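Researcher: Here's a chain I'd like modeled. Treat it as a single chain, no partners, no ligands.
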Amino acid sequence: MPLLSIKNLTVDFPLPEGTVHVLDGVSLELGEKERLALIGETGSGKTVLGHAILRLLPPGTQVRGEVWYDGCNLLSLPSTRMREFRGKEIAMVLQNPAAALNPVLTGGYQVREAIARRWRPTGRPVRR
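Model: Modeled as a single isolated chain. Structure tokens:
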């Protein structure tokens, strides 16, 4: 059984001018020991696919199909349960890390801060 299974995933953005069809019938499977890198032209839907898997798309976005992770249908989980998967089980690294990281702080500090905020609810500051 695959760890991640995406079946016929379709994502549409409704706009006042009409619907924009971004993903159309994406299907893939990823095993437990496998890694996946998506490559493609700008605007080809790589980021939208990642956001659809993580359920981070804007409200009103129409998502159809199936996204299964470790036996759970991610598209049917409540938001509170979905948060348990983000970052800990499933993560996405964007192609432009300069847009996501602060260039005046070390990468290590930023990673430690993200981990501390996610897994240490005490709110204690992270050492540099």
